[in-house]
Amino acid sequence: MVTASDGSAAPTPASSPTSLELAVFSGEEIRTFPLPQTGSVTIGRGEGNTVRIDDPSVSRHHAALHVDKLEIEDLGGANGTIVRPKVETGGGDDTVDTVNVVQLVRRRADLAVGDCLLFGTASAVVRHRPIVEISDLLPQNPDDAGTAAGIVLRDPAMRALYGQAARAARTNISVLLLGETGVGKEVLARAIHAHSPRSNGPFLGINCAAIAESLLESELFGSEKGAFTGAIAARAGLFEAGNGGTVFLDEIGDLPLATQAKLLRILEERAVTRVGSTRPRPIDVRFVAATNRDIEADSQVGRFRQDLYFRLAGITLTIPPLRDRPREISLFVEEFVKGACGQVDRAAPLVVSPEAFNCLAAHAWPGNVRELRNVIERATVLCMGDRILPEHLPPSVLSPIRPSTPLAVAPFAPTTPSRTPQEPQPGTPELQDEIKSLERTRIVEALDRCHGNQSQAAAILGISRRTLVSRLTAFGLPRPRKWPNDAGT
Questions:
Q1: Which of 10, 141, 194, 268 would you label with 165, given CA atoms 20 to 30 Å apart?
Q2: 147 pairs with which residues across the strands?
Q3: Going from the N-terminus, what domains does the chain have, and what CATH number goes with each?
Q4: pLDDT tens column, 192-208
Q5: Is the pTM above the cut of 0.70?
């Protein structure tokens, strides 16, 4: 039940705030923000907000979410804040989307877990944080053709892959995971940890592409007090904190060359030296790295250190994209619907209509399993009846697209098509110009399809957001928020 603060209905009891998060759906992107135990979080397009939504329909200071009583307050945004409570129908009614909608303008409303919030065209929902025990990530029998806590093992290639992973997990060898963005590299990394002798130790991960180069070394290696501006106390880095467990280095292909050299030394010496210190500290961690790039090819042309590649690739596991294992889509949909409904306290899981499932089955899934999960979670929030219908799916799923061709330099590509004699040679200026033109066109098309959302466009292109921003600069393209159609917002 949602009630405006000047209404007479009693507030709906909230779940424990420590178990809640705010999931924001902007376009086809989903971002999650853990909610604190007490206090408030601010929501808006401006830099100073706790939850920043880079969407032109969202005001700079749009709303505030008060956690203690679980209330939403509109701060006077141009488009207001709309609250739509979840509806438990049970009668198969799919036409209840506008029931009990409350529009707030400088007012507050009580919330319950699962109520939908609309900030302009961006929607959000307060939901339970998914809690998955690491020990449950991998079935006891790696050849089991069922599902286990988000792992689907129906495709023979995936069953064989997890069998290899289980055997590798029992050793201390470094593992390199390859595959496109969103195929489940972190899920496999956690499964390896869960099946290893280190399963009682910590599993710590870091996205090497998401942290500024100036901060990356202190995050990995730790720092001493006074090592740089803002270092007010000594702190252990990721490698020290992971002692006795597993360290997961995601997007390792985007690690700067200077940091690669230091990581190589740590792998060889099993000791880390904090920034600002000269004393090495012994570490006992198992390394699992992942990338969507073909770093073996990168190592041969100098974009990645070859000696580091050999150190990381003790055993290499390549995860196939979702489009190559279509038999798993129905199981993933079932698991994701069940999980998404549980997060928003729906009494019973939704049913996916045959029409909606046909759209899901026909989609190319360039974002792989992550994209499918996002689509299902988005549909669960938008669906107010008992069934997920095609209108609850994003436009890209309703209009099937061909699998995207990888950019010339970034994504992992397991095979390279052979050249015909008529094609120009790699070093010719004509081919270089053609590649640049194609790359620029694909970036513009991806941004246009995502309405300027850089993170989503980067996911479609199979590159990191930081790489996309550098491409925009190289091609002289304006950042999406500065495009003319965003002017004045």
A1: 268
A2: 152
A3: 17-128 (2.60.200.20), 134-318 (3.40.50.300), 327-398 (1.10.8.60), 429-486 (1.10.10.60)
A4: 999 999 999 999 999 99
A5: no
